[in-house]
Amino acid sequence: MTPEEFKAKRIKKAKAYHAVFSGPNAKVVLEDLMAQFGRTTLRKDNNGRIDPNASLAAAGCREVLLYIDEMVNIDATAE
Asked: Which residues have C-beta within 8 Å of that of residue 47, sequence separation ≥ 6?
């Protein structure tokens, strides 16, 4: 894939993310997702010990949110 093709594909995806995650309802949803899953990824078990599996799962959720945030904030008008 050429750099131009990569950029065109990324802008096309960004436009789709903008379409899905724009407007007043989208803002409420994104804020809720960030509040629920965008915080620290360190998770502890009932005994207060770090739970590596739960921590990894939380990190995965956070990565998805960061990607959505990145795609929504791409300037999709810059072609």
From this structure: none
Q: How many other β-carbons are positioned within 10 Å of the β-carbon of residue 14?
A: 19
Q: Which residues contact 50 (CB under 8 A, 6 or more apart)?
A: 42, 43, 44
Give the tokens for residue 72: 């929504």
Cα 11 off chain centre by = 16
61/33 Cα distance (integer angstroms): 9
Condensed to tens digits (0 to 9), the pLDDT of residues 2-55 reads: 999 998 999 999 999 999 988 889 889 988 998 988 888 899 999 999 999 999
Long-range pairs, 3-9, Cβ under 8 A, ≥24: 8/79
The gap from C-alpha 77 to its chain's centroid, in whole angstroms, comes to 20
In whole angstroms, give the CA distance from residue 15 to residue 8.
11
